[in-house]
Specification:
This is Shikimate dehydrogenase (NADP(+)). Its EC number is 1.1.1.25. It catalyses: shikimate + NADP(+) = 3-dehydroshikimate + NADPH + H(+). By secondary structure, the protein is α/β, with parallel strands linked by helices. The chain has 2 domains: 128 residues, Leucine Dehydrogenase, chain A, domain 1 (Rossmann fold), CATH 3.40.50; 133 residues, 3-Layer(aba) Sandwich (Rossmann fold), CATH 3.40.50. It is 38% helix and 23% strand. The protein contains 11 helices and 12 strands. The chain has a 6-stranded mixed β-sheet, sandwiched between helices. A 6-stranded parallel β-sheet has the order 9-8-7-10-11-12. α1 packs across α10, α5 packs across α10 and α10 crosses α11. It is globular. The chain binds 2'-monophosphoadenosine-5'-diphosphate (ATR). The site of 2'-monophosphoadenosine-5'-diphosphate has 16 residues, from α6.
Length: 269
């Protein structure tokens, strides 16, 4: 059967093997999916070795998304724009095709949660690689305005100007956040250290949704903070499942049932 994997470092706790194995069962596809810890200094070598052993495609997670971007022979327009690749595929004439499904995965999960998108005021926290990957699909949903706020203001300003051709986009530091928002997405890695970006108390409009791209057994500090201020809260587990489904579709041309897998993961954590 065809082989797929997720490359990361570390990668031991990745849920991707479980997710893709269930997808394969659901759709009747015959494939194997494993987790491979690539060496930090030789991602390309690990990919080549995997292909030589029958690998047909891979997901790529931290810290290899930029290296995967450089390795691909052909990039999808959205991967080009994101500057990162989370999905590799061996294509025609053994050419390596690179795509990113993170952004579309986020938007699908937002839609599954009936999040305000079209005509909404959206605030995105953070201006790193993870945020660069979600801006194009968010702007494609036609929000009224999208603001990017980051600890290092210059990075948010730069990102906003890079995407300004796609919609009303502004950037600045956390101190530049004014007004209320219908959707606030935390794309910083602050949650990992249990930290909270400094945000105004009156951040959420009526019916607002707070989304953290991180997930864990417990709600993140950001989600707990948001819940106290009346926002509806959603963590990034669904985004993980949706981006996986998009990758699976690229590889196998079949759409798995993501809701069933999301429920399975929620029950087991
Ligand atoms: P990723 O791939 O997760 O986006 P990254 O490119 O290193 O990783 O970006 C991390 C993001 O989290 C950045 O926006 C970073 O802010 P800076 O650009 O100012 O470094 C943000 N971040 C990390 N730790 C943070 C903290 N404790 N408080 C606020 N923002 C934080």
């Amino acid at each position: 059967s065809d082989r797929y994997c997720v490359f990361g470092h570390p990668v031991g706790h990745s849920k991707s093997p479980r997710i893709h194995t269930v997808f394969a069962e659901q759709t009747g596809e015959s494939l194997r999916y494993e987790a491979i810890e690539a060496p930090l200094d030789d991602f390309a070598g690990a990919w080549r070795a995997f292909v030589a052993e029958g690998g047909r495609g891979a997901n790529v997670t931290v810290p290899f998304k930029e290296q995967a971007y450089r390795l691909a022979d052909v990039l999808s327009p959205r991967a080009q724009r994101a500057g990162a690749v989370n999905t590799l595929m061996v294509g025609k004439h053994e050419r390596v095709y690179g795509d990113t499904t993170d952004g579309v995965g986020l938007v699908r999960d937002l839609q599954a949660h009936a999040a305000p998108l079209e005509g909404a005021r959206i605030l995105v926290l953070g201006a790193g690689g993870a945020v660069r990957g979600i801006l194009e699909p968010l702007l494609a949903a036609n929000p009224a305005a999208l603001m990017i706020a980051n600890r290092t203001a210059a990075k948010a300003e730069r990102l906003a100007s890079d995407f300004a051709d796609l919609g009303e986009t502004t950037g600045g530091g956390f101190d530049a956040v004014v007004g209320t928002f219908d959707l606030v997405i935390n794309g910083t890695s602050a949650s990992l250290g249990g930290e909270l970006p400094p945000l105004p108390d009156e951040l959420f409009a009526d019916g607002a949704l707070a989304y953290d791209m991180m997930y864990g057994a417990e709600p993140t500090v950001f989600l707990r903070w948001a819940a106290k201020r009346g926002a509806r809260t959603v963590d990034g587990l669904g985004m993980l499942v949706e981006q996986a489904a998009e990758s699976f579709f690229l590889w196998r041309n079949k759409r798995p049932d993501t809701a069933a897998v999301r429920e399975m993961l929620r029950r087991s954590r």
